[in-house]
Amino acid sequence: MDHSPALMTDMYEYTMLDACLRDGTANRKCVFEVYTRHLPEGRRYGVVAGVGRILDALEHFHLDDEDLKFLSDRNVVSPETIKWLENLHFSGSIKGYREGEMFFPNSPILQVEGTFGECTLLETLVLSILNYDSAVASAASRMVSAAKDRPCMDMGGRRTNEWAAVAAARAAVVGGFKGTANLLAAQMYGLKAIGTAAHCFTLVHDSERDAFTSQINALGRNTTLLVDTYNIEEAVKTAVAVAGPELGGVRIDSGDLASLAQRVRNQLDALGATNTKITVTNDLDEYALAALQSAPVDSYGVGTMLVTGSGAPTCAMVYKLTERENSNGVMQPVAKKSKDKASVPGRKLAYRSYEYGLADCEHVVSGSEDQLAAYQPKDGWKDLLVDYVDHGEINKQYQGHDAIVAAHEYRAQALAELPVTAQSLMKGEPVINTEITVL
């Protein structure tokens, strides 16, 4: 789909730009911050995902003649603003939490610095990516914890918008999943692709034996056969008869998955297929995965609950102005005082402190650029911010396949540094507190 990320905005971002260009404030230096006031109810932590997609979008964040004509024809902005937009390219700086990092209420997940005109146009794009991708990664992380050492695979493409499915596949891998059924996501991001056959493949053949024979002839004995179209016991018997004991795997997609997996495991072993793996699917979430821990299951395919954030499809992140250049050219902290929506003024530093190797507190420090440059964190505090963009130059190490692999590995490390209660599925407060210091 050919489109400009610069139009993935709410209209008021352009009308604000238009007004600010008229009154002379559009070029004021500003700092915007992305954070969430609270985690989804009962969640202990969140996982950052989507920053790499934001960087990808920034590379194409400009408007072509057709886009400019659209804005002009709709009278969204004035002709003078159209002229300004002809040269639109983000030239500011961005720093924030790494993909795969844990976040908590008031964590400064992303800080965007530049002119007001540039920064305000990014709001909707940044929030739509971070809110969704982080919701999926957070759900995926909970599922991976519940699954223990058994791999989880994304099968949610048919349960969400077609482009959200691609984003969800990427975010799921950041959150700990091992692969996806979505081929476009696999192509775009170099992810492992998985998939064999659905029930319709069995139904189109004259018999289940014919279907299994066809699949094995096409994909080899190491394939995974779907065994619950008719009768599972008969299907397993037929599968081993056709493929032999070298059969790669079977998939169960319905019924009492724990008891069925146990029966199928015993049956496979009795038939000599002791190395044949068992995959289960069917509306799984982290609670279902936890309930299957004692069942002889080798891997899981997760769909609906993954791509919907397992009941929390957004992280409620916001994008707020925290510092701006005043009429005298001096940077000045600013904040909302709205009821229940007050913000913390100033740009931020973020650290995590540890005791006996476990995280015990998130430390957010707010102040002027000079104050933060002089700030000395305590020994052992981990700096949580990395530089993503420096005056328009994107740090390429946070894009592409290698960045996703790094985020996948980092999530596991960061989660292991939290108290073990972070992995509890019981509802509770964030596993560590956030302390805010205003210098």
Q: Output the CATH class name of the largest domain.
A: Alpha Beta
* Proportion of beta-strand residues: 15-25%
Q: Over the alpha carbons, how many angstroms does the gyration radius reach?
A: 25 Å
**What is the name of the CATH superfamily of the largest domain?**
nicotinate phosphoribosyltransferase
Mean pLDDT: 97
**How many beta-strand runs?**
19
Q: How many structural domains does the protein architecture include?
A: 2
CATH topology of the largest domain: nicotinate phosphoribosyltransferase
Q: Spans with pLDDT under 50 lasting ≥5 residues?
A: none
Keywords: Glycosyltransferase, Ligase, Phosphoprotein, Pyridine nucleotide biosynthesis, Transferase
Pfam families: NAPRTase, NAPRTase_N
GO molecular function, one term: glycosyltransferase activity
Catalytic activity: 5-phospho-alpha-D-ribose 1-diphosphate + nicotinate + ATP + H2O = nicotinate beta-D-ribonucleotide + ADP + phosphate + diphosphate
